[in-house]
Every structure is written in C-alpha cells, then in structure tokens.
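Researcher:
Attend to token order:
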Amino acid sequence: MRALSLAALAAFLIDQISKYVVIHMWELARIRSIDVLPPILNFRYGENRGINFGLFGDGSEASRWFLVVLALAISAAVVIWIRRSNQPRIAQISAGLLVGGAVANVFDRLLYGYVLDFLNMSCCGINNPFVFNVADIFIFAGAIGLVFLADDGKGATAGSPDKKRQ
C-alpha cells in the first residue's frame, strides 16, 4: 500500500504543479497558446467540463458532480481491490498513478468547476484539436499498467508466461 500511496501523491503533485506553472505562472489562461516544440508539443488552454475529449461536457452542475462522484468511486474501488488482492508492487504503483491522476482532476473540478487542460500534441500533418493534462497521462499509464502487470489471480501476472501447471 505504501507504493500505491507514494505513486498517487507523486502523480497528484506533479499534475497540480505543472498546471500551476503553465496556466498561472506562464499565464496560459491569458495568452491561450504557447508553442513549445511545434507541431509536436504545444500548450493550449482548455477547460474540460466532460470526460476524455470533452465528451458529456454539457457544463451542468449535475454532470460536474456526477463526474466527481464517479472518479472518486472508481478510485476507491481500485484501492480496495489492490488492498484485498495482494498485488505486486508494480501493480500497486500503476494503481497509484491512476488514483493520483483521477484525484488531481477531481481537485480541479472542485476548485474551478472544470478540469484544466494544456497539453496539445500533433504530428505528421495531422492537427490535433484536443488538449489534455499530466493527470490524464497518469490515468492512462496506470490503467495500462493494471491491465498488463496486475496479478490475474492464477499465480502469474498478466503479460508474464504462465507457470507450468502440474
């Protein structure tokens, strides 16, 4: 559980510090756009009132609170599952990344009413209109880690060769 807690705290802090620096200190909220390594990496100000890519982002208070409750419920379920299933350390870290990212986005929803996004990546002549944040990266990485690294309950971890059965 220590690995989960430390990973969650690290993910939360890295996300919140990155948002504070880019959006407030570098004034992205005011200037709206900073080209970092165009076209690959740019900072574009975004207010996400929905889930990924703004889906279900009607901006209503009901949807805001629904998304807060949903994120906290999923985070609690992941923590309970990790505690009960005696997962390997790498799965605990993955769970911590997912939970820390989710809680960071919940914090944004509570503080601002929406999730602050600022990362925009494009490549190869494709102009990506979507923005995301560091918490989204942690959520994605944590979920992928749980899929491939969590114990499947059969004595082998997902992604590793099965032990010979006798």
In short: The two ends are 33 Å apart (CA to CA). Residues 2-46+69-149 form one domain. Strands lie at 33-37, 41-48, 115-121. DSSP finds five helices and three strands in the chain.
